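pasting for ref
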Amino acid sequence: MMDLKPRIDLEDLPVWERIRPISLKEMDGVKLMNRIDTKFVTSESVLVGILDDAADAGYRVCTIDGQKIHSYTSLYFDTPDLSMYTAHHNGRKVRQKVRTRTYDISGDTFLEIKRKNNKGRTKKKRISIPQSDFDDFKANKEACRYLAGHSWFTAEGLVPRCTTEFRRITLVNPSMTERLTIDTQICFRNFMNGNSSSLKSAVIIELKQDGRVDSQMRSILLQRRVKPFRVSKYCMGNVATDPLIKGNRFKAKMRYIEKTINDTII
């Protein structure tokens, strides 16, 4: 991960003594591979209050080997002409993303296909792959067949485009009907030109539900003046690392993030 130091030491907050842990096994019932996602953007300083409110509401935190904040690395693939990025930029409701992802604490690595339909619902399919295939899975016949069977794309038609690294907190509500992922220290590296960037003290929160049901966390966020905000780490990574890319729509979103954290990103 890039040497991006958080403004606040999130691992040393007193709130962790009040949030009960939940294991990966216990979380099996809230995988939500077919779900409604709502994203929000805020700052690390506001996040501290959100975590306090979550503790008061009985939310639990995913804990692995005693760790409550976990590092992830993802590599997004695209066509040479960036058809996935362009579909998102142009507002296509039906679209796909293809990525590999490594869970750094375990080394588990997956090829993942995310599909969004015209009703805003996200479906994610994934297959386990060796960590050595993270950058290039074309020689993995099983992974190639899986991609061709679950997406519009083939391995031969894709190139690695942008790496994202981040640290994630995952919360689960008491009734086990929703997950909240909180991504911090978000860094990007452009696979094509080698440029790197980060979102500095910005935090991307994603509320994942099986339907449009009432959510206590949504109320917490709104009380903290954190409103829904559509954002893609892949698209932000492209805009932050490629000055030549078509990105008017996403540059406006970047300006919003900069205003939120009171800092300059690009």
